[in-house]
Amino acid sequence: MDDFLPRVLLGGFGVALVAGPLGAFIVWRRMAYFGDTLSHAGLLGVVLGTVLGINPQLSVAIICLGVALALVLLQRQQALATDTLLGILAHTTLSLGLVALAFLETVRIDLVSYLFGDILSINTTDLYWIWGGNLLTLGILLGLWRPLLAATVHEELAQVEGVPVFQIRLAFMLLIAIVIAVAMKVVGILLITSLLIIPAATARRFARSPEGMALLASVFGCLAVGLGLWASLRWDTPAGPSVVVAAASLFVLGSSLPSRSGN
Predict the structure, then answer these.
(1) Distance between CA 153 and CA 113 in Å, rounded?
(2) What would the pLDDT profile of 123-170 be if each residue is shown by its tens digit?
(3) What own/partner pairs with CB < 8 Å and gap ≥ 24 does 148-152 have?
(4) Of the segments 85-94, 110-119, 143-152, 179-188, which one has the largest average pLDDT value?
(5) Angstrom distance (rounded) from CA 53 to CA 45
(6) Are 93 and 63 in contact (CB under 8 A)?
């Protein structure tokens, strides 16, 4: 137990720390549905990883990166609205994953753990993936912070000022793909978007600056992980969903308090 609890907490906190800043941009840019699309695509990555015999987190990252790139390229054609493209990609990749899964008659996949997370089974290798991927993501995000913030506030003005908007948008989508891949073990493919959005939405009421909101989102995410794991161990509930319920509870509690940000 002494070795088990630190591993679980380190894994959960590692995801929450990077989900906070990314989630803030997702809230600002109204990209929640994009996160759902990538999380749906994650199932196809899990199946392909099983077939090819590679690490599921690596295969999920590859598929999510591919979907993000496909979305950016389709957006440039301007033939369909973004929400339509997201709907097509989300349901197509999820269905492809389920169809491919039906052909794996000799391979057993614990689908529930991938869909809803299995944070209690985190091992040392998983921690390397989580912290390695998230530290890489945070480093890139810090480097992109100012141009990404400028493009978020006013994309056309940022483009006039010389910000490479297309490249910045693509890089941001790829960062979300990496986080979804490494966070899969914590809250699962279908719930990771909640950990990205809910703490950021909670932090928005209290933050006075973009940086403050990103920091508070990480704090609320860590609180949600801690409370969710405590509830899971206390009442024997599913760990991933318990973390999301804890995040939602913090949001409800925060909504009942006076706002300090004016948003």
Answers:
(1) 38
(2) 888 888 889 888 899 999 999 999 999 999 888 888 888 899 888 988
(3) 148/25, 148/172, 149/210, 152/25, 152/28, 152/29
(4) 143-152
(5) 12
(6) yes
Q: In order of start, what are the domains of the chain with their CATH numbers? A: 4-188 (1.10.3470.10)
The angle formed by the CA atoms of residues 90, 129 and 115, to the nearest 5 degrees, is 35
Could you read off the pLDDT of 221-251 as tens digits, one per residue?
999 999 999 998 889 888 888 999 999 999 9
> Which residue, chain included where needed, has tokens 């890139």?
140
Average pLDDT over residues 83-97: 88
Which sign, positive or negative, has the C-alpha torsion 171, 111, 128, 224? positive
Q: Is 170 exposed, middle or buried (0-12, 13-18, 19+ CB in 10 A)?
A: middle
The identity of residue 196, as a single letter, is L
Q: What's the token pair of residue 116?
A: 């809803």
Contacts of 11 (CB under 8 A, 6+ apart): 119, 122, 126, 127, 130, 185, 186
Question: pTM for the full model?
Answer: 0.88
What ranges in the chain are assigned the alpha helix state H?
4-29, 32-52, 56-77, 82-102, 111-116, 124-153, 155-160, 165-187, 192-204, 210-235, 239-255
